[in-house]
């Protein structure tokens, strides 16, 4: 195996995942994964540029950052690339008015978005809001559109909390895709555009970063 210095030659930045890498979410704010607080601090003291990338869609960036800071992480809201703000930018650029099937914890991210007379659906990890009634309402909106647009904040199958594994947005996204005969537009990991926006934020080229 090549020496660490050789492996890092040309690397200028690091993209860090949050859930399952830095901490496990759950009741009481979750728990930091052993060694993660110290690892982030060491990276920030190094010559490398650090950016946090997350598919978290149950919390606003402000709430997520506050939670991580309480766990001891050195992190600010401006260092986090998250799907909800990215989706809002897309909605504004394309004149889309979403029907929101999302968690109440992230709803504040969409406060400046027009949701009247919806011409698309935005789906995220809605947790307990993934009821039959709410899924069917989203289905009905899509089926009434001539050119249905479904935007999904991530497409994960499941994630880990301190209480165990939890279904993510992916299975519900797939249900709407199947029912409506459409393909969702994914905003968040693993979308190349999502990673590209994170790299642009720290001024690093695609061949100059590590992802963890």
TrEMBL record:
> Keywords, A to Z?
Cytoplasm, Hydrolase, Magnesium, Metal-binding, Nucleus
Q: Which Pfam families match?
A: Hydrolase_6
Entry superkingdom? Eukaryota
Q: What is its EC number?
A: 3.6.1.1
MF terms from GO for this chain are: inorganic diphosphate phosphatase activity; metal ion binding; phosphatase activity
InterPro entries per record: HAD-like_sf (IPR036412), HAD-SF_hydro_IIA (IPR006357), HAD_sf (IPR023214), LHPP/HDHD2 (IPR006355)
Give the location in the cell. Answer: Cytoplasm; Nucleus
- Catalytic reaction equation(s): diphosphate + H2O = 2 phosphate + H(+)
The protein's required cofactor(s) are namely:
Mg(2+)
Where is it found, in Gene Ontology cellular component terms? Answer: cytosol; nucleus
Stored NCBIfam families: HAD-SF-IIA-hyp3
Q: What does this protein do?
A: Phosphatase that hydrolyzes imidodiphosphate, 3-phosphohistidine and 6-phospholysine. Has broad substrate specificity and can also hydrolyze inorganic diphosphate, but with lower efficiency.
Membership in a protein family:
Belongs to the HAD-like hydrolase superfamily.
Could you tell me which PANTHER family the record lists for this protein? Answer: 4-NITROPHENYLPHOSPHATASE-RELATED, PHOSPHOLYSINE PHOSPHOHISTIDINE INORGANIC PYROPHOSPHATE PHOSPHATASE
Full protein name = Phospholysine phosphohistidine inorganic pyrophosphate phosphatase
Native species of this protein?
A: Saimiri boliviensis boliviensis (Bolivian squirrel monkey)
């Amino acid at each position: 195996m090549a020496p660490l210095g050789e492996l890092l030659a040309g690397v200028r930045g690091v993209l860090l995942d949050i859930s399952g890498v830095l901490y496990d979410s759950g009741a009481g704010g979750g728990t930091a994964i052993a060694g993660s607080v110290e690892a982030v601090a060491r990276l920030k003291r190094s010559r490398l540029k650090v950016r946090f990338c997350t598919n978290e869609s149950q919390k606003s960036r402000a709430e997520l950052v506050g939670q991580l800071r309480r766990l001891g992480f050195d992190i600010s809201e401006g260092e986090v690339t998250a799907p909800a703000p990215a989706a809002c930018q897309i909605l504004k650029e394309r004149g889309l008015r979403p029907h929101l099937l999302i968690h109440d914890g992230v709803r504040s991210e969409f406060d400046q978005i027009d949701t009247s007379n919806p011409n698309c659906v935005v789906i995220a990890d809605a947790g307990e809001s993934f009821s039959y009634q709410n899924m069917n309402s989203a289905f009905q909106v899509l089926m009434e559109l001539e050119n249905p647009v479904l935007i999904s904040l991530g497409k994960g199958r499941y994630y880990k909390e301190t209480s165990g594994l939890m279904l993510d947005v992916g299975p519900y996204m797939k249900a709407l895709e199947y029912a409506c005969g459409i393909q969702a537009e994914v905003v968040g990991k693993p979308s190349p555009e999502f990673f590209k926006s994170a790299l642009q934020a720290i001024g690093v080229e695609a061949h100059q970063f590590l992802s963890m």
